[in-house]
Amino acid sequence: MAKTLLRALAGEAVWPPPVWLMRQAGRYLPEYRATRAQAGGFIELCTTPALAREVTLQPLRRFGFDAAILFSDILLLPWALGQELRYAEGEGPLLQPIRDAAGLRALRPQAVATAIGPVLEVLRGLRVEVGGATLIGFAGAPFTVACYMVQGRGSKEWDQVRRMAWSDPALFTALIDLLTEQTIAYFCAQIEAGAEAVMLFDSWAGVLAPSLFRRHVIVPTARIVAAVRARHPQVPVIGFARQAGLMLAEFVGSTGVQGVGIDTSTDPGFAVREVPGLVAIQGNLDPLALAAGGAAMLRETDAILAAMRGRPFIFNLGHGIMPQTPLEHVAALVARVRAA
Amino acid sequence: MAKTLLRALAGEAVWPPPVWLMRQAGRYLPEYRATRAQAGGFIELCTTPALAREVTLQPLRRFGFDAAILFSDILLLPWALGQELRYAEGEGPLLQPIRDAAGLRALRPQAVATAIGPVLEVLRGLRVEVGGATLIGFAGAPFTVACYMVQGRGSKEWDQVRRMAWSDPALFTALIDLLTEQTIAYFCAQIEAGAEAVMLFDSWAGVLAPSLFRRHVIVPTARIVAAVRARHPQVPVIGFARQAGLMLAEFVGSTGVQGVGIDTSTDPGFAVREVPGLVAIQGNLDPLALAAGGAAMLRETDAILAAMRGRPFIFNLGHGIMPQTPLEHVAALVARVRAA
């Protein structure tokens, strides 16, 4: 097992640490924008294997990252389940919201396998091309995916979602359970198509009260980790419950993840104290520090590296890279991490 | 010192605990909507003493809360400093953003005293009318106010703000310093007009990396607490750094606040372990649990009360009450807390 990222996820304190960036295939890259323009919509880009493969590989060619993550979207599963989805310019995703049992019943789990076929095709084509980098599979976590499915669009507060979780726990849990089962199958299919690790993105976990966090973030994540590991014991799972730093130790301890993403607001020293020494930590430079560049970026990078030295660690951002990030800042960051 | 809220802020484990709700003067109340319709805009409502007094008192009349908080807006200070501000329907506040030193110089600190005159008039009229409730003064914290001043509008990520904090720390710190000085003067004027406690709202503190949190949340809050307490040693300060639960112990320890708000995502048991026993904790029912009502709301309320029993505590929400909240849910909540 020579790949640095897999060694870190197996509990080894690889140094200098492997490095990749969330949303590294994104709008800050001119070659991404060019390929993006060739696809019709965003879902088309994710489901056209040649184009999705191309954008997945672009950041590796330019910066030599230690991982490539499947180019996809957390809403691919609702789309595959038949929920109406469109991307409005400047507004983000818009879905026909699910607010009752009839909305839930209208989903078509039997349609998923066909719909995700092209996504698995993306991975099959990538396995060899990533070379020494690790190919990571991708899915939104059940709670975050449910957020969009219930609210119908992005939100700061996710009021419809949280209200349903409190007032109709049976319905909301049924949706979470459906997404949990689908995510297990989706991850297993990704692994069978070539993914060497998988990462679960729970971008909105931080809005939940602790009792709902346990029920709708920790429980589904634990089920996904257990089921994926039962079928593929050698494939590590990275969990990322953004803005849920307070629950970090409980999240790691109760889910059994092999790696845990930490967001921008999490103090690296706190994470080192809270996370068991064999679980890899992944994070957490502020994407705006990277956009700003210069001395402040290097100082923050050095502080993160100093806190993480001697434990399994994967350098990353605390959230996705911003579109306005200058390319030379990314190059300077990678050089700094490699010189650690 | 007979008022329950002031006793809790003095370190006493008052039981049943005092109770009030963030944004208790708000759109969920029909009488608020009626008064709101009489004012032209939102700033007009805040600066017309008879109307601002009326909406401040409405929730006390209906629910007998233990505190009234000055009806105001965190953007009152930028407005008083002369920054162009309007409220667009469905979009929230829009300001002429400050992006450089010229923008900062264009602010007019000398205009603030006159502009806030009507706000102080609101407090003078309220002091007697609140009866046994505690009259709390209100201000946005420097970082959160700066967020709107730099970004120019609401945001999930506050990318312009964080980028300025990293790339031009001198400019951003100058803005924070200006707001810190103004907030000290504003709080002291509020106290001299009748406020018996003051609360500082840092709604967006949770987006910051720890090093920026220390510089732009903890340092200004500590300065405000020290300066206010130097002039008014008997007046307690409540700090509320929303979504910054990881920094809770450091925030409390380094700022010297007498009370600390905790948001929805903070585990009450964690807060009890992290906050020194003489500092009052204020929070933290999920506003969506209140909107949902019923058994889940009562169960969550009971869990918070059980965690907080025996220490200084003020029952509140973890964030402002939602407009769609049924009035009978609020009444049921208050009854449950009073029966603790």
Written account of the structure:
The structure is a homodimer of 340-residue chains. In chain A, β5, α12 (210-231) and β6 (237-241) form a beta-alpha-beta unit. The first copy, chain A, has one domain (4-338): TIM Barrel (Alpha-Beta Barrel), CATH 3.20.20.210. By secondary structure, chain A is α/β, with parallel strands linked by helices. In chain A, α9 (142-151) packs across α11 (169-192). Chain A contains 17 helices and nine strands. Chain A binds chain B through residues 154, 156-157, 159, 162-163, 165-167, 169, 206-213, 243-247, 264-268, 270, 286, 288-289, 291-294, 296-297, 300, 303, 318-319, 322, 324, and chain B through 154, 156-157, 159, 162-163, 165-167, 169, 206-213, 243-247, 264-268, 270, 286, 288-289, 291-294, 296-297, 300, 303, 318-319, 322, 324.
In short:
The structure is a homodimer of 340-residue chains. Chain A is 51% helix and 13% strand. Chain A has helices at 4-9, 30-38, 42-46, 49-63, 76-80, 101-105, 112-115, 117-129, 142-151, 159-167, 169-192, 210-231, 248-255, 268-274, 287-292, 294-308, 327-338; strands at 67-69, 85-88, 92-95, 134-140, 197-202, 237-241, 259-261, 280-285, 313-317.
Named CATH topology of chain A: TIM Barrel
Rg of chain A, alpha carbons: 19 Å
The geometry of chain A reads as globular
Could you say how many structural domains of chain A there are in total? 1
Question: How many helices of chain A?
Answer: 17
Distance separating the two termini of chain A? 22 Å
Q: Largest inter-chain interface? A: A-B, 44 and 44 residues
Unreliable spans of chain A are none
Assembly category: homodimer
* Alpha-beta classification of chain A: alpha/beta
Q: How confident overall, as mean pLDDT of chain A?
A: 96
CATH architecture of chain A: Alpha-Beta Barrel
- The count of DSSP E runs of length 2 or more, i.e. the number of strands of chain A, is 9
Strand order of the largest sheet of chain A: 1-4-5-6-7-8-9
Query: Which strand-content bin applies to the residues of chain A?
Result: 5-15%
